[in-house]
Amino acid sequence: MAEAQIIEKRRHASPAVTPQALGWDDKKNVLWMGSRDLRRIYAIDAESWAVVEEREAPGIPWAAVAINGEVRFTIGEGADDDRYVYRYTPEDGFSKMFACPEFTGSYLSEQPNENWRIARLDPQQETPKIEDIAVVPFACRSLTSDGELFWSNYRAKNRIISFALPS
Fold first, then answer.
1. CB-side neighbour CA atoms (13 Å) of 118
2. What is the value of pTM for the model shown?
3. CA atoms within 13 A on the CB side of 86
């Protein structure tokens, strides 16, 4: 039996090369994206696909999450790419909050020749059972949701893709 695949809704050119970090800001209704190679962040209006804000980051923006009108980024700094969590607001810019444990932190990766998948689990269970939900037909980087759709980067193609899960 074929495995369920995501239902792609939109595919956009990234406003910058190597899109990496993604975070949905429901207070401002924008998608935050960080470019790995350019070390810049972008706020994107998801309807018009216009960049409404752009700023240089203090390092490589690896991950993002929007919380109460602020954006938190995992930023890699220096030759060793040491990872720190930063707070960002348009009014105050970036402020370093704390170092990641052992200066590391990013994402889990896939096994060679395996499909990329979206799965869920209940972290409150003593031994969480992982339930595969859908196969993602591209090498995705980062994942966020606007409450209706999921968003992910196809970094190798400089694309940002929104999708729904199969029912």
1. 23
2. 0.82
3. 25
CB 159 within 8 A of CB 12: yes
Cα–Cα distance for residue pair 152/142, rounded to 1 Å? 6
Give the HSE-up count for residue 24: Cα atoms under 13 Å, Cβ half-sphere.
Answer: 15
Angle (CA) 132 133 134, round 5° = 105
The CB density around residue 55, as the number of other CB atoms within 10 Å, is 12
CATH of 16-107+139-158, one of 2.130.10.10, 3.30.360.10, 3.30.1660.10, 3.10.150.10: 2.130.10.10
* Alpha-carbon span 73 to 64, nearest angstrom: 4
From first to last of its 167 residues, the chain has per-residue pLDDT tens of: 457 889 999 999 999 999 999 999 999 999 999 999 999 999 999 999 999 999 999 999 999 988 888 999 999 999 999 999 899 999 999 999 988 888 887 643 334 456 677 887 777 888 878 888 888 888 888 889 999 999 998 989 999 999 998 88
Specify whether the backbone of 126 is left (phi greater than 0), alpha (psi in -120 to 50) or beta: alpha
DSSP label at 122?
Answer: -
**Token pair listed for 143:** 């994942």
